[in-house]
Amino acid sequence: MKSEFTPPIGKISNMNGKCISLIGNDIDTDRIIPARFLKCVNFDSLGESVFEDDRKTLKGNHPFDLEENKYASILVVNSNFGCGSSREHAPQALMRWGIKAIIGESFADIFYSNCIAIGIPCFTLPKKSIEEIQNYCDNQSLFLEIDLKNLSAQSKDLNFNLEIKESSRKMFLSGEWDATSTLLDNKILIENKFNQLPYIKFNTNIS
Amino acid sequence: MSQDTLFDKVWDLHKVSSLPGGSDQVFIGLHLIHEVTSPQAFGALKDKKLKVKFPDRTVATVDHIVPTDNQSRPFKDNLAEQMIETLEKNCLEHKIRFFNIGSGNQGIVHVVAPELGLTQPGMTIACGDSHTSTHGAFGSIAFGIGTSQVRDVLATQTLAMNKLKVRQIWCDNKLSKGVYAKDLVLHIINKLGVKAGVGFAYEFAGPAIHELSMEERMTICNMSIEGGARCGYINPDEKTFSYIKDKLYAPKNEHWDIALRWWESLKSDQNSIYDDVIKLDASKVEPTVTWGITPGQSISINQQIPLLDELSPNDKLVAEEAYEYMSFKPGQLIKDTPVDVCFIGSCTNGRISDLRVAAKVLKGKKVSKNVKAFAVPGSEKVATEAKQEGLDQIFKDSGFQWREPGCSMCLAMNSDKLIGNQVSASSSNRNFKGRQGSPSGRTLLMSPAMVAAAAINGKVSDVREFIN
Q1: Which residues in chain B are contacts of A182 at CB distance < 8 A?
Q2: Does A124 touch chain B (CB under 8 A)?
Q3: Which of B14, B151, B439 is the closest to A53 by Cβ?
Q4: Tens digits of residue pLDDT in B10-69
Q5: Residue B263: phi, psi to the nearest 5?
Q6: Per-domain residue ranges for chain B?
Q7: Contact A183 B27 (CB under 8 A)
Q8: Superfamily for the B17-161 domain
């Protein structure tokens, strides 16, 4: 656990950090943060509860409890990571624990967009490359230098060409991943759309 | 790329702009909020000094944290009380319509919006809940979002999104007796896998789908997300229109005729193009039960839990995890597995038709003495209707507890939880590890009729033996 949490802001282009490997397909957001921790009106204390039940079950042997992973910031996962509930509490908990980027075989749709919305790039790599990283992490530390511009991940021994949706890459590089202000720029277009939609007029009862 | 499907038409209609990064800015016609995923979004609005752009386009209710035994205020659980108070305050401050407990219209957000006629064909609908896909049953494009996106919808009524691909899932023939929409959707998820829907909207179509009632269609679309598809929909037809007619927020008088003509025009064209098409035979589906820790790990009632060798390399890893967690042996029959808890409710199967079908099985029978069984209506309206029909009495006479509306043990954010490694037969949507409130609790997903059968026998049973 890191001491101070500061949320990312502005342009995001380089992420350098130690990898933490978490093996398993279809790891759902209930496992990332069990529902009882959703009883909160802010995200502040979620970091310590990330993977709470899995960690308890593994009694200190969960990757998020291992001393060597204490300062890791790049999470390496398998396929369909973050499936299930739309709770943004899941990426918020990961971020507050210290995760700054995720590399995986694939991600669930809502989890992916939640990550983008809070400034965590999610990269994909083929299964073979993920296994290569996870095997490497079994025996030694892997520090990756990620360059979002060139989509490269480099280290002493391993190098990869990462993939990410082009729209996400552009948003991180330009700083527009925090979408609210970009969306608000089109105020007039939004008003026009509102006035054009047929059903807005139907709902005499709703307004 | 798909063309001329309902999805394409609705998406194009709601597209506000192409954003610099390449995604689309999409207008959200109806925004639904609840107490769990909205407080941080309102907090962010405050931080950014922003207002709610169109307060009339957002509707709120409270569902996830509400107790189902004693709903008097303040709630016994302080955190739950704090969450409902925060929602009350936010709705009041931002002039958002809120269906609170006791209003007669409170309930699970995905039960409430359709029954009030808020959900209509051709709308884009977003909610900070993954089961928002439910509303696609009406031919709307509906999907779950996270809290930052809730903030964006509140502030701008729009979202930045990449357009989804469209897969048509064509279901031939019709379901046999004792087989329900829940069985069909569990079957589809099993065949396609839990991640096949990533990047897709699912269009459910074919004779078996159009044979289904609106409530059954909601069950199908509700679980799209369990197959990885954020959005699932069904082209609207006469059943859709007659369900909506005369609902509280349905178009009235001359607007009704205009609406009908427009809704008709939204259907996917006969020669529309899909990114993918899957066909299956609904008449082959049998009562289906999950045995594992993902909704894709299901078998029909008379099948054995699959052997490792029968599974694809990708599925093996999760299967091994599931055998261990569930304490099941490969090759074991699912039928006759003893159950401790039986739960009927949730946004998947907590509607009046679900209660009716379960009550029919339960009538004149008793719940096994080893089972704790409870029924949680999906909304106050459902509860009222059930009472008028005397269903609550049938449940109570059989030994079921009859509760107040809420999400309850689908995700166990209130005090309805499994204890230890109890096995639950559940009409809900997720059998994830720990989902029903105990870190070692085990969930078997099935239709409400199958839950009723399991409650009577105290073990997983074939409901067809009860209804012939």
Answers
A1: 19-20, 160
A2: no
A3: B439
A4: 999 999 999 988 899 999 999 999 999 999 999 999 999 999 999 999 999 999 999 999
A5: -60, -40
A6: 17-161, 165-239+259-284, 288-467
A7: no
A8: Aconitase, domain 3 (3.30.499.10)
